[in-house]
Design goal:
Helix content is 59%, strand content 0%. The chain is built from 4 helices and no strands.
């Protein structure tokens, strides 16, 4: 070993080796994680499935709400999986685990966004009805404009 090579400091025997990049050793359930590395694939799948079911969701104006809903659903799935693998909702002291409490809030948020997007039957029926009415109104407006335009042109002749 030459004097130019960096020397590794001597680590005490009790100390663990350094973590590798992208490790998951400190991760518990990932529900509060700001990193989407565990859910990004599922988010894309959910967005595509929703767009297949409801074609109006392809409109760019739905993008933010759709991604919000998909992220929430993916986190719910992740949390449910973690709870199932780690003994359920009740902690060792007999109380509800924080992850289970957070899942309750995530489910409420997902329900609200799902309704806004029309991903439940009642909300979808309402949105479909409103879209049909808007198309009808637009068509009638165009017809009225056409009639008025033609009438105005007829007056000048």
């Amino acid at each position: 070993m030459s004097d130019l090579e960096p020397q590794q400091p001597q680590r005490p025997a009790w100390q663990r080796p350094p973590f590798e990049p992208q490790h998951t050793k400190s991760l518990k359930h990932g529900l509060w994680s700001r990193s989407d590395r565990f859910i990004s694939v599922r988010v894309a799948e959910l967005v595509n499935e929703a767009r297949d079911v409801c074609d109006y969701l392809c409109d760019p104006s739905y993008e933010a709400a759709l991604v919000d809903w998909a992220q929430t659903e993916a986190r719910i799935e992740q949390g449910e999986r973690w709870l199932a693998e780690n003994g359920g909702d009740i902690g060792p002291n007999g109380g509800i685990k924080p992850a289970a409490n957070y899942l309750i809030r995530l489910r409420a948020h997902a329900t609200k966004v799902r309704e806004r997007l029309g991903l439940d039957p009642v909300a979808r029926a309402t949105i479909t009805r409103d879209l049909a009415q808007a198309r009808r109104d637009t068509h009638q407006t165009k017809d009225i404009i056409t009639v008025l335009t033609e009438a105005a042109e007829g007056d000048h002749l």
